[in-house]
Write a structure and sequence with these properties.
This protein is of the alpha+beta class and 112 residues long. Helices cover 28% and strands 34% of the residues. Bound molecules: zinc ion. The site of zinc ion (ZN) has 8 residues, from loops.
Length: 112
């Protein structure tokens, strides 16, 4: 499961931040997740509960903040925010330039 691996790298980041920042408990983690990243929120929540056991983030609340993508058609100028991937411009079938929507990063952590 791809979400489990994501959670493991998330915990590795949190643990190294804890070592560097001198905190020993994480209360909540705000995670920005791109809507095109192909991540299942439920699986992410579940994986987070499992992999944080016995770590500084055990019992922490995981808040998932969805990040949208911006699509821009290179031939007709059509623009829209996307919540799921699309291939071609719905207005003229032209090539799209898509920015954002694939991020997966910790925005904020509440620690002590
Ligand atoms: Zn177009």
């Amino acid at each position: 499961m791809h979400e489990m691996a994501l959670c493991e790298s998330l915990v590795a980041i949190i643990e190294s931040e804890a070592a560097a920042g001198g905190f020993h408990r994480v209360h909540s983690v705000r995670l920005e997740v791109g809507l095109l990243a192909g991540v299942e929120r439920d699986a992410l929540q579940f994986g987070f509960q499992v992999v944080t056991r016995g770590t500084v983030a055990e019992g922490a609340l995981l808040q998932i903040l969805p990040a949208v993508a911006q699509a821009h058609c290179l031939s007709c100028g059509w623009r829209q925010t996307l919540s799921r991937p699309i291939g071609l411009c719905p207005s003229c079938d032209g090539p799209l330039s898509v920015t954002g929507g694939r991020e997966l990063r910790i925005k904020e952590m509440e620690v002590e």
